[in-house]
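quick q for whoever's on today - can somebody do inverse folding on this one?? i tried earlier but teh output was garbage lol. tokens:
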């Protein structure tokens, strides 16, 4: 089963990270953006839950610290320098802002706005940490989710490591963890073409929500619609990934999803510039062009700075 999971979930991560790029590329229909933001971050939390393994607290802190927190801190520092150096005389940030924002893991429109997508990494670390602590007391997880729901849809409550976002994401992590036990059964009894009706129903539910979900700022709209739509679209993406197992581009995107997550906002302007030279302003084409642009920086990082991907 390991090989199957590796291939399919690499493809699934590839689909997810492409949607992250597309969601930030600009010039994308608002309805499509709503669909993307309804499930692309829940998708990664679901995958993390699927691969979660119970371990000792010491091993967890060492492994997850290396895999998540070190790349987070380094990318935050590099992103800050990229902004700060050319704007030294009129920078809206100083080094205190960098240290404070990075330490708290807060992306609130000011802190971490030098690379806003980095919020996901400390949130992912905290989510894994909370689940590890509560795995023996799972009844408490319900209480944590209820607290998250209580503060949902309040953009002013951006807590350290995006705690409210983490609590709202717990159901995806838990379901991903439980889904691992039944994955082969699902694969045997459900056909891959079912991604079509699941997508249609999920997209329809998204259209019924009262606002555009954005987990980063605690926005989920109607909870029942949000969780239902997200899970249907996650399952649809999983079935689709089974059909696209041999797609080399998606596989590469999945294998390098962490680096792509951290790098893509810093290179989007190049893809936009190329398209605008031809008088084209299209988010989907921008996303496609960005992939080969990211290829060489990622190759260099993997060869000379593997610490940036947690190795």
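ok took a stab at it. sequence:
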């Amino acid at each position: 089963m390991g090989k199957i999971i590796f291939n399919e979930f690499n493809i699934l991560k590839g689909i997810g990270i492409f949607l992250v790029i597309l969601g930030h590329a600009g010039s994308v229909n608002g309805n499509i953006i709503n669909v993307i933001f309804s499930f692309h971050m829940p998708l990664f939390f679901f995958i993390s839950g699927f691969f979660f393994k119970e371990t000792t607290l010491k091993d967890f802190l060492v492994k997850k610290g290396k895999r998540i927190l070190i790349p987070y801190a380094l990318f935050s520092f590099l992103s800050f320098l990229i902004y700060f150096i050319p704007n030294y005389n009129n920078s809206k940030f100083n080094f205190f802002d960098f240290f404070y924002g990075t330490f708290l893991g807060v992306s609130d429109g000011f802190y971490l706005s030098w690379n806003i997508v980095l919020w996901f990494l400390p949130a992912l670390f905290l989510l894994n940490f909370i689940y590890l602590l509560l795995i023996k007391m799972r009844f408490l997880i319900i209480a944590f989710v209820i607290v998250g729901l209580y503060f949902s849809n309040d953009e002013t409550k951006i807590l350290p490591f995006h705690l409210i976002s983490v609590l709202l994401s717990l159901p995806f992590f838990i379901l991903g963890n439980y889904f691992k036990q039944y994955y082969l059964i699902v694969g045997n009894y459900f056909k891959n073409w079912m991604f079509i009706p699941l997508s249609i129903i999920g997209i329809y539910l998204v259209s019924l929500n009262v606002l555009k979900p954005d987990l980063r700022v605690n926005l989920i709209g109607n909870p029942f619609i949000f969780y239902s739509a997200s899970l249907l679209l996650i399952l649809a993406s999983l079935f689709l990934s089974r059909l696209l197992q041999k797609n080399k581009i998606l596989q590469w995107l999945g294998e390098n999803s962490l680096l792509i997550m951290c790098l893509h906002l810093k290179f989007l302007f190049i893809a936009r510039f190329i398209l605008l030279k031809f008088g084209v302003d299209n988010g989907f084409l921008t996303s496609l062009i960005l992939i080969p642009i990211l290829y060489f920086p990622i190759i260099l990082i993997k060869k000379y700075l593997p610490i940036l991907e947690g190795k």
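fwiw The first helix runs from residue 2 to 24. also Residues 54 and 132 are 7 Å apart (CA to CA). so keep that in mind when u check it
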